[in-house]
Design goal:
The protein is α+β, with helices and mostly antiparallel strands. It has a single domain, classed as Nuclear Transport Factor 2, Chain: A (Roll), CATH 3.10.450. It has a six-stranded mixed β-sheet. Strand 4 and strand 5 form a beta hairpin. Helix 1 packs antiparallel against helix 2. The radius of gyration is 14 Å and the shape is globular. This is DUF4440 domain-containing protein.
């Protein structure tokens, strides 16, 4: 049986994939909102810091074609267990749309609520 830390790492990586599947979809805001802690902060390149305090502003900022990609892949993934209820996933992301490539580093801090659900506390991307 895998250790608790291995299970947490696997769950956080699956959550990160769910985040990027949402971010690269035609309409990311609803799924990203659902994955997020109410206090979450998002730092995307060339944008102001986004929060969930105003759901309409958040949805407007992520409206299509925000991050609309045909595909993405993670490289150099590292999952850091802070404790049994918090972790950070860091990576390099490569995404493509047509013949354009997006390359960035990414980091998402996840926290686990009393209900056992992992939610985003903070997400940031830095263009390379």
């Amino acid at each position: 049986m895998p250790s608790i830390h291995d299970r947490i790492r696997e769950e956080l990586l699956n959550k990160e994939r769910a985040l990027w599947t949402a971010l690269t979809s035609a309409d990311p805001a609803p799924a990203v909102f659902k994955l997020s802690n109410p206090e979450a902060n998002f730092m995307f390149p060339q944008m102001e810091i986004l929060t969930l305090q105003d759901e309409e502003t958040f949805k407007k900022a992520l409206r299509p074609p925000f991050h609309r990609f045909d595909g993405y892949q993670f490289e150099e993934v590292r999952t850091i267990i802070v404790d049994l209820m918090a972790g950070v996933v860091t990576y390099k992301i490569r995404a493509v749309r047509g013949n354009k490539e997006y390359t960035a580093t990414g980091s998402t801090t996840w926290s686990q609520g009393s209900d056992g659900e992992w939610t985003i506390a903070s997400h940031s991307e830095t263009l390379l």
